[in-house]
Amino acid sequence: MARELEGSATPLLGVNLGNLGFLTSVRGDRLTTAVREILRGEYQISERQSLQTTLLRDGKCKEAHQALNDVVVSRGAFSRIVRLRLSVDGELLTEYVCDGMIFATATGSTAYSLSAGGPIMVPTARALIITPICPHALSNRSVIAGENSVVRCQMMSAAGELLLTVDGQVQLRMEAGDEVEVRQSSRTVQLIIPKNHSYFEVLREKLKWSGANV
Question: Across the chain, which distance is largest between two alpha carbons, in Å?
Fold first, then answer.
């Protein structure tokens, strides 16, 4: 739904019907109360950055998509590593030997990127997180690029199938030599947030942070 409304002035209310729900600010059992508060104007708008993702083949655009959370380059069914060359603003970053690569927004920092060892960023931050998945070199860590950076990821070699996944829903097959270009989109997503909503309280609850045991 976020991709459908992207760039629109229509705000989006996320309702949590599951367990984690970082993007959803209202629990299902509080929906009626929340809607009444919203109709009274008791809410705020959180503007979220999104990513423009382009799959390039032979230098030409094959497909383009928007992502609110993340864009993932990953191997398919075979458990074999891939070699990916990354550049930021036309300058070589490095070549990764890994299982794949995650490009995430601040909103998506608490999703797949977090599980892969990436940093947590507050939703108001404007940056692009680059997180390798199971890198072969222990020195490979997440890199945070600027909000206006253009990142390119080229598939140098792979022993099996390689996939490009956008927000966990759009999936494209990649070939050797393909490139993925990721940059900040000019479009944003407007999320409705209850007035008493606290992002850090959500972090403590969802990540089970209870302080020191001593």
Answer: 58
Calpha distance 65→3 (Å, rounded): 9
Q: How far apart are CA 144 and CA 188, in angstroms?
A: 20
Tens of pLDDT, residue by residue over 163-200, are: 999 999 999 999 888 999 999 998 888 888 888 777 88
Sheet holding 150-158, edge to edge: 60-67, 43-57, 179-194, 150-158, 82-88, 91-98
CATH of the domain at 111: 2.60.200.30
**Are 153 and 131 a contacting pair, CB within 8 Å?**
no
Say how many domains are in the chain.
Answer: 2
Count other C-beta atoms under 10 Å from residue 102's C-beta.
Answer: 27
Range of the domain at 26: 2-47+189-206
